[in-house]
Amino acid sequence: MRLIRLAVILAVSLTFAPLAAEAQPPGRVYRIGILLAAPISQYPPLDAFLQGMRDLDYVEGRNVIIEYRSTDPHRLDRLPALAADLVSRKMDIIFAIATGPAQAAKDATKTIPIVFALANDPVHAGLVASLARPGSNLTGLTNTGPDISAKRLQLLKEMLPQISHIALLWNASNPMVARQVSETEVAARTLKVQLHVVAIRGPNDFESAFSAIIKARVSGLVVIADVLTAAHRERIAALAIKNRLPVISEFRNFADSGALLTYGPSAPDAGRRAAYFVDKILKGAKPADLPVEQPTKFDLVVNMKTARALGLTLPQTIFLQADQVIE
User: Fold this and answer.
1) Which parts of the chain register pLDDT below 50?
2) Which value, in Å, is the radius of gyration of the alpha carbons in the chain?
3) Which of 114, 119, 150, 181 could form a disulfide with 138 if both were Cys (CB 3.0 to 4.6 A apart)?
4) Each residue of 4-56: pLDDT tens digit?
5) What angle do CA 156, 262, 321 make, to 5 degrees?
6) Residue 221, H or E segment
7) DSSP for 170-211?
8) What is the torsional sign of CA 271, 274, 278, 283?
């Protein structure tokens, strides 16, 4: 009888061993490093990420410690040192928002798991081997998806049906957004509009860029969002309104700063999904086994204050599609 009881106890122990392995170790405090390429206030996904972590029962000061590292958008050369500092402090995981921080984190460690969000074309950037099989210590969420660039041009055409010339402003010093430029060029040919591509490389280029845009006699402007254009989004909006140009870009904070329209992946949704990735990895999953996700939720935001400043009456179809209207 004693041997039978021991066998039963052993069988029960083996049955529940995998469940115990997946649970968070009692009293364990995780260290999460967050790496940013601009001040914290410029990152819409961050609040959603932190709320997502709380929803998953990670409470700062109780079972998780979060360390932030950020730099000025004009000092991206500091990212490698900031990433190395997080690695030296033995983080359990690093959360990097955007491609630059993710690359810096990848270069700093081959062992600490890294979750990225809103990365431009992570395969081309060398962050992962493929979306389905990341193959290393990185995974997360890309901000690129099918037909996003075409949709932005379609929205401009829907708002201004007679539009035939559109400018595109992008940061040529950031090769990771080059794919969006080529996709927009393809969409322009399909929609039979002439696209005037204007490049900037630094904060001193905006005045000359807008001079070129105005000289091209365009009726609308697409702004490719990245760290540089996001840092100067209010300046871009002011120059566009001054020259009576409707602007469409990617993220809600551009509309908050005066762009007429924004259409792109939901930044809060990306933040919440990043928390899901972090939770899975802290519970034992390997980044290499978690496929990179493309965005599934997109937001269209309309700034009515800017519409009035431009003297535009927007068609009802725009409002029917809008997720948010800024009055």
Assistant:
1) 1-24
2) 23
3) 114
4) 443 433 343 444 344 333 444 557 999 999 999 988 877 778 999 999 999 99
5) 70
6) strand 220-223
7) EETT-GGGHHHHHHHHHHHHHHT-EEEEEEE-SGGGHHHHHH
8) positive
Asked if 112 and 95 touch (Cβ cutoff 8 Å), the reply is no
Identity of the amino acid at 184: T
Instruction: Say how far apart CA 233 and CA 239 lie, in whole Å.
Output: 10
Which residues fall within 8 angstroms of residue 103, CB to CB, at 6 or more apart? 79, 125, 126, 127
pLDDT at 149: 87
Whether 271 and 46 have beta carbons less than 8 Å apart is answered as yes
Sorted by sequence, the CB contacts under 8 Å of residue 327 that are 6+ apart come out as 304, 305
Q: In one letter, which amino acid is 166?
A: I
Report the predicted TM-score, pTM, of the whole model to 2 decimal places.
0.85
The Cα angle at residue 82 between residues 78 and 85, in degrees rounded to 5 = 145
Q: Look up tokens 């996003």; give the residue.
A: 148
Rounded Cα distance between 212 and 236, Å, is: 14
**CB-based contacts of 258, cutoff 8 Å, min separation 6:** 233, 234, 237, 238, 240, 241, 247, 303, 305, 306
The one-letter amino acid at 98? A
Distance, in Å, from the CA atom of 304 to the CA atom of 241, rounded to the nearest integer, reads: 13
How are beta strands 261-265 and 298-303 bridged, if at all? antiparallel
Strand order in the sheet with 261-265: 194-200, 165-171, 220-223, 247-249, 261-265, 298-303, 324-326
Provide the pLDDT for residue 26: 57
What are 263-298's pLDDT values in tens digits?
999 989 999 999 999 999 999 999 999 999 999 999
